[in-house]
Amino acid sequence: MKKGLIIAIVLLVFGNLQSQDIHFTQFLYSPFNLNPALTGNFEGRYRLGANYRQQWRSITQPFQTTGLWADSRDFMNLKNTNVGVNFYFDKAGTCDFNTLHISVPLSYRLNVGQDSTHSFNLGIQPAFNYQSLNIDKLTSDAQWTGTRFDGSRPINENFQRTNKGYFDLALGFTYNLELPKMNFTTGFSVYNLFQPSTQFLLGDEKTLPRRYNFHVGGKINIGQEWFATPGILYGRQAKFYELVYGSELNYIMNNTPYKYRVLFFGLWNRGKDAGILNLGMHYNSWRVGLSYDINYSSLKTSSNYKGGWEVSIIYILRDLLPKRTNYKYCPDFI
């Protein structure tokens, strides 16, 4: 009976996967899955990032998502023009439901006034997705004999295909506020603008619903040695939604150039689903964060309060080459 319950949960999750996008708990540090207008929205010239998430190991085969991305501010010295590249691979459930995503986010910055106190970013992100699954690993209620589960029986599902590729588009904008002791970025984005078909079963006309995000993130200085980095995300996709909010408290250990050291600890919450703990460190141009979701939803009986863990890594390159000082050459005989 316990095995049958676990199988039912896996099937339920798999069914929802066909109509939902991936998500990262550390949403502020996975910018292109949040808003394409965040491309180039950092202090520096080049930024490299990586994200990894694993969840639901206590229930079934763990769901795993790996992301790699990079972007450039003022790309090719084109002022206010920012370009990036985003890649992620997601593996979900016992049937190896895989998603490969490749996209190219672009944004343009519009400054308001003579300084950079107020600015807007407009973003667009064309994308290609490839999905596949292994139907040999699928199970269904047709394999229940009435007294036991028989994996040798057919699942009685008519699959039209086991893989599919499609193009899609995302749009977004952000407003940036830069003040002496604080800064904030708020934005809105929409993904899956074309609502592409995700049909695998014959006669099952499924499309990927549009996903809408509203988000706020910022930095607030608290004295000389502390600052807070709060954030909030409200996302909706069809009837599914999530509300994530919280903050990190950062302690500056060393603020001198090339010796910058900051430790941070954060508390977050995702709706009625999970509490989140995160910690990490800034080390010169590096930022490394680790988080863990503590599940307290109705699934806690099966999950035993275990959700998922996640890591994010970001490296910012201020300048590709140091600035060169030009000197005039004077011969000795002058």
Radius of gyration: 23 Å
Query: Quick one: biggest sheet?
Result: 15 strands, antiparallel
CATH homologous superfamily caption: monomeric porin ompg
What's the order of the H and E elements? HEEEEEEEEEEEEEEHE
| CATH topology label | Porin
Whole-number total of structural domains: 1
State mean pLDDT (0 to 100 scale).
84
Q: What gap, in angstroms, lies between the N and C termini?
A: 97 Å
Supply the CATH class.
Mainly Beta
Summed up, the helix count is 2
CATH architecture: Beta Barrel
Beta percentage is over 45%
How does this model look, in words?
This protein is mostly beta strands and 334 residues long. It has one domain (2-145, 169-316): monomeric porin ompg (Porin, Beta Barrel), CATH 2.40.160. It has helices at residues 2-17, 300-303; strands spanning 46-55, 63-72, 81-92, 97-103, 106-112, 118-132, 163-178, 182-191, 211-222, 226-237, 240-254, 261-270, 274-283, 286-295, 306-317. The protein has a 15-stranded antiparallel beta sheet that branches. A hairpin with a 3-residue loop joins strand 9 and strand 10 (226-237). The longest helix is centred in the N-terminal third of the chain and has 16 residues, at 2-17. The chain is globular. The protein starts with a helix and ends in a 17-residue tail after the last strand.
